[in-house]
Amino acid sequence: MLVDIAVLPGMRWCIEWNHSVQKFAVLDCYRNVAGVMQLERSHQPDFAAGLGHTVGRGEQVSDGEGGYWINEIDEPVVNNRYVLRVGADAVNHRVVWLAGDHRREVSLSDLASGQRVTVQLIKPAPPSVNYK
């Protein structure tokens, strides 16, 4: 396991990476909706290669800085997991989330560059009690 974060219902986190051509940061943001991993929204600073909004999949709105958010995607992720091929240091795939008012991040590229990893929301195991 590379990253283990307690993600309570309603909590959000993002996978952020640097676009391989344009070098700006792109975000895909998820939320725990009653135990279901859901792609909630995406931030894209430009209509660069491989990026863009698909009509009928969320609502595209300006970010006020020349880029855009695709909000209200709200798509459940099949089986609460997906496979990601982690990019090199220049791409720097990272998990980002807020802990209180503080942005936290862990670089997947530092830990597993060039490897396949599974991004997954798991339910915590129930507490165990040992009886003797």
What structural category characterises the helix and strand content? Answer: mainly beta
- Intertermini distance: 32 Å
Roughly what is the average pLDDT, rounded to an integer?
85
Shape: globular
The H-and-E topology, N to C, reads as EEEEEEEEEHE
Number of helical stretches of at least 4 residues:
1
The Rg value, from CA coordinates, equals 16 Å
Strand content: 35-45%
- Unreliable residue stretches: none
Helix content: under 10%
Biggest sheet overview: 8 strands, antiparallel
Oligomer: single chain
Structure summary, number of beta strands: 10
Question: Could you give a quick summary of the protein structure above?
Answer:
By secondary structure, the chain is mainly beta. The chain has one helix at residues 108-112; strands at residues 12-18, 25-33, 36-44, 59-62, 68-71, 75-76, 81-85, 94-99, 102-107, 116-120.
Q: If you had to describe this structure to a student in words, what would you say it looks like?
A:
By secondary structure, the protein is mostly beta strands. Helix content is 4%, strand content 43%. The protein contains 1 helix and 10 strands, in the order βββββββββαβ. It has one helix spanning 108-112, and strands at 12-18, 25-33, 36-44, 59-62, 68-71, 75-76, 81-85, 94-99, 102-107, 116-120. The radius of gyration is 16 Å and the shape is globular.
